[in-house]
Structure formats: structure tokens, C-alpha cells
Design a protein that fits this description.
The complex is a heterodimer of chains A (112) and B (116). Chain A is mainly β and 112 residues long. Chain A is 0% helix and 58% strand. Chain A is built from no helices and 11 strands. In chain A, the strands form 2 sheets. In chain A, strands 2, 4, 5, 9, 10 and 11 form a 6-stranded mixed sheet that branches. In chain A, strands 1-3-8-7-6 form a 5-stranded antiparallel sheet, with no helix packed on it. The chains are: A mainly beta (112), B mainly beta (116). At the A-B interface, strand 4, strand 5, strand 9 and strand 10 of A face strand 4, strand 5 and strand 9 of B.
Chain lengths: 112, 116
């Protein structure tokens, strides 16, 4: 069964304190791993898509990496405005609908 | 350009009533998805529409839930005889035509449904 597990559930950082969020997945034939950011009371906002092991993508203070079993979202020198819930999702190869399977999310709080 | 829009933003209803939730996808997007996000839960897939193809209804939790998409654009999710466990945020997403690896789903702001 396809499964996505994110850790930690919650993370508190001081401004400038770099860290990483983990997304472990079990899926038959990965057809994309997606990272989204969700602010309270809003819909998920797309960040990155990764397709193959070894791929990396960056956007401002965020960098996403992918291996055959997990993905990391690295946050370098975070700022309070990076506080949000970060969601990981996968799409598997046998799906002809493109539906995403989401993890539970990691809630990040960055204190000034 | 305009993103995915949903209405209403919030809906409070009484147990047993029917509700309709609306989604306007990004213009030109042929794929449309409904997800549900319950308190403390991850996003749960409900239903998928792609062009004129038969929808994938595999995620609908019961026959009280139904959805339609008119003219390949606007979609309505209907919940009949609402129950308290239906309280959640209902999110709609759209994407361009499913074409190999070129699909990213863009989400709307959601409708927050509370069943009393």
C-alpha cells in the first residue's frame, strides 16, 4: 500500500537555525514527489516537484532533495515568515488519475 | 492569472441538511480534484475529473457524497444528509492535462464545513 510519512510532526527553530524536514515514502513506481506549504486557513501552495533519485531543487531558503526512499526539505537560515505546515505528497506510477497521497505534514515554527 | 477559487469560504449547517460546495479551476486546466482535510489529518483524495472521461470516484467515503463537473470547468461537490464527521476543509485542485511528468496540482483556498 502506498504510504507517506513525514517527520517530525512539529519543529521549532530559532531564526537562522537551519534544519531539515523528512518525507519517507513507499510507492509503486514513483511519478513525482511534491512539496507544498500550507499557511493556517489557506490552501496548500506548491513549492517543488521531484521526479528521480538524486534530483535537487532550490527556492530561496528552501532546498528539496530526493532519494529512492525519502525526500528532505532543507531550510537554511529560516525566517519567521517560513513558519507554516509543509506537506509532502507522492503520485504513483500505476495511477491513471494523478491523485496525490499526502503525508500528515510538519508544522514549522520559526521564532525571531 | 487567477488561481483556483472556491465558494463558500465557510459553511455551517445542521446535521441532516444537504450542502453544495463549488470550485472554479484555473482557466485551461482540464483536470480537477477534490480532497478533504480533517482536523489533524492529512489531505484525503475524494474524486478526480479529466476532460470528458468518466470521473475517478474511488475516494468518496459514502454514497452521500457526489460531484459533477459542468462544461469541463466548474465543479460542484454535494454532500447529502450531512453528518458531524463530514466537518472538514474541502479543497479543490486543478492541473493541466495529464501528460507524463508535467502535472502540478494547484489548490484553492478551501471551504471550511462545520456540521452541527
Amino acid at each position: 500500500e502506498d504510504q507517506v510519512t513525514q517527520s517530525p510532526e512539529a519543529l521549532r527553530l530559532q531564526e537562522g537555525e537551519s534544519s531539515s524536514l523528512n518525507c519517507s515514502y513507499t510507492v509503486s513506481g514513483l511519478r513525482g514527489l511534491f512539496w507544498y506549504r500550507q499557511d493556517p486557513g489557506k490552501g496548500p501552495e506548491f513549492l517543488f516537484t521531484l521526479y528521480s533519485a538524486g534530483e535537487e531543487k532550490e527556492k530561496e531558503r528552501l532546498k528539496a532533495t530526493l532519494t529512492k526512499k525519502e525526500s528532505f526539505l532543507h531550510i537554511t537560515a529560516p525566517k519567521p515568515e517560513d513558519s507554516a505546515t509543509y506537506l509532502c505528497a507522492v503520485r504513483h506510477g500505476s495511477s491513471n488519475t494523478g491523485k496525490l497521497i499526502f503525508g500528515q505534514g510538519t508544522t514549522l515554527q520559526v521564532k525571531p | 492569472g487567477a488561481g483556483v477559487s472556491q465558494s463558500p469560504s465557510n459553511k455551517v449547517t445542521e446535521k441532516g441538511k444537504d450542502v453544495e460546495l463549488r470550485c472554479d479551476p484555473i482557466s485551461g486546466h482540464t483536470a480537477l480534484y477534490w480532497y478533504r482535510q480533517s482536523l489533524g489529518q492529512g489531505l484525503e483524495f475524494l474524486i478526480y475529473f479529466q476532460g470528458n472521461s468518466a470521473p475517478d470516484k474511488s475516494g468518496l467515503p459514502s454514497d452521500r457524497f457526489s460531484a459533477e463537473r459542468t462544461g469541463g470547468s466548474v465543479s460542484t461537490l454535494t454532500i447529502q444528509r450531512t453528518q458531524q464527521e463530514d466537518s472538514a476543509v474541502y479543497l479543490c485542485a486543478s492541473s493541466s492535462r495529464l501528460a507524463g511528468y508535467q502535472e502540478t496540482q494547484y489548490f484553492g483556498p478551501g471551504t471550511r464545513l462545520l456540521v452541527l
